[in-house]
Design brief:
With about 270 residues, the protein is an alpha/beta fold. It has a single domain, classed as Rossmann fold (3-Layer(aba) Sandwich), CATH 3.40.50.720. It has eight helices and nine strands. It has a seven-stranded parallel beta sheet, with helices on both faces. A two-stranded parallel sheet has the order 7-8. Helix 4 links the parallel strand 4 and strand 5. The longest helix has 27 residues. The N and C termini lie far apart (about 35 Å). The model has no long low-confidence stretch (mean pLDDT about 95). Bound molecules: nicotinamide-adenine-dinucleotide. Nicotinamide-adenine-dinucleotide (NAD) binds next to helix 1, strand 2 and helix 4.
Length: about 270
């Protein structure tokens, strides 16, 4: 990635920015000159991300504690955002939870409700609260804004994970929303794309490669590019999607998984 500050004067809002991919994306967008709205339910995580960014970059940063599954809190976040900034050019729906290891039919209703609330209703709440303002951002022509949904390879037909049954279905729903919103917002010059990571070293796996290896072995899954992913690689893809090189790309789901999804049940 070049050092070109193509996001100067533009704001990137990232949900779930207190950890993992969200934290790396905050840094990656700051490298490109963006100002930041960082959202999470975890205030300590938000502080940590802000400090990491400010160690090296002078982005203006707004921290917003809000639960994405709560539409009132999300509307309040939109209000605070536009009191501080005059745009949100990049909106990354990244906050997500896995809900634990259950098959789809054995998961409790409470797991279903929680996982769908955060992973599906969350991005819907956030997108609904911001898209009208994004549409009006004529100053950034030809593209008014970019929405990036962090889905998962588990949400794709080759990657559905039986032991993450509810999670897989929630991410499939987010990929469907990606295409539906791309159709709806295309005429407003807003692109909408998804990133579907495979298995990456983040706090979701306690940053523990051994835990990931065990997880892969129990599923008998092999990764053709035989490495566990590093969160920066997802952040780099999110930077590409925010760049003008990706202006003509919308409604797509970018799988970044070392080939795991094409190998499931085929390399054993
Ligand atoms: N790590 C992986 O291998 C992997 C693979 C595929 C997809 N993903 C997806 O990537 C995204 C980020 O995952 P990660 O690995 O960085 O996980 P993570 O647990 O490190 O980060 C998720 C962040 O979201 C926040 N969050 C949770 N619920 C929230 C809510 N209701 N409102 C606001 N914030 C909330 C958490 O506090 C946390 O800071 C998730 O959507 C996850 O499903 C991760």
């Amino acid at each position: 990635m070049s050092e070109d500050k193509f996001l100067k004067g533009k704001v990137a809002l990232i949900t779930g920015a207190g950890s993992g991919f969200g934290q790396k994306m905050a840094i990656a967008y700051a490298v490109k000159g963006a100002d930041l709205v960082l959202n999470d339910i975890n205030e300590d995580g938000l502080e940590e991300t802000r400090n990491l960014v400010l160690e090296q970059y002078n982005s203006k940063i707004l921290l917003v504690k809000a639960d994405v599954s709560n539409s009132k809190e999300v509307e309040e976040m939109a209000k605070k955002t536009f009191e501080t900034f005059d745009n949100v050019f990049v909106l990354v729906n990244n906050a997500g939870i896995d809900g634990g290891l259950y098959t789809a039919l054995k998961a409790k209703e409470s797991v279903y409700d929680k996982v769908f609330a955060v992973n599906v209703k969350g991005p819907l709440n956030v997108t609904k609260a911001f898209f009208r303002n994004m549409k009006r951002q004529k100053q950034f022509q030809p593209i008014a804004g970019k929405i990036i949904n962090i889905a998962s390879v588990a949400g794709t037909p080759n990657g559905h994970n039986p032991m993450l049954g509810i999670y897989s279905a929630s991410k499939a729903a987010l990929i469907a929303f990606t295409k539906l919103w791309a159709l709806e917002l295309g005429k407003s010059n807003i692109t909408v794309n998804a990133i579907s990571p495979g298995v990456f070293l983040t706090p979701i796996y306690n940053n523990d490669p051994k835990l990931i290896r065990q997880f892969l072995e129990t599923r008998n899954v092999k990764i053709p590019i035989d490495r566990i992913g590093e969160a920066e690689w997802v952040a780099d893809l999110a930077v590409f999607l925010a760049s003008s090189t990706a202006d003509y790309i919308t409604g797509q789901n970018f799988i970044i998984d070392g080939g795991m999804s094409i190998s499931v049940n085929k390399l054993n």
